[in-house]
Fold this sequence. Notes:
Elements: E1 5-9, E2 24-28, H1 31-35, E3 38-42, E4 48-52, E5 56-59, H2 63-71
Antiparallel strand pairs: 1-2, 1-5, 2-3, 3-4
Amino acid sequence: MIMKGFVLCIRTHGYEASLELRKVYPVIPDSDAARHQQIRVVDESGADYLYPQQFFAPIKLSPKVKKVLLAA
Length: 72
C-alpha cells in the first residue's frame, strides 16, 4: 500500500462506526475518488475506504512523526 500523506478527521456524520473525530488517518492515492470529491483513507477497520473529502483536513507531519504513524 502506497501512502500519499495524512489527514485529520474533522467530521464523522454517518460514519461514526468507521471514523474518529480528531484522529489522524493515512491517505492512499486515488485519482478516480478525487474526481468525485472523495478520499481513500485507512480507517478503524484497518482497511482502506472512500469517504467525503470534506470530512478531512490535510496535515503536514515531520518525517519522525510519519515514521511512527506508519509503524503503528
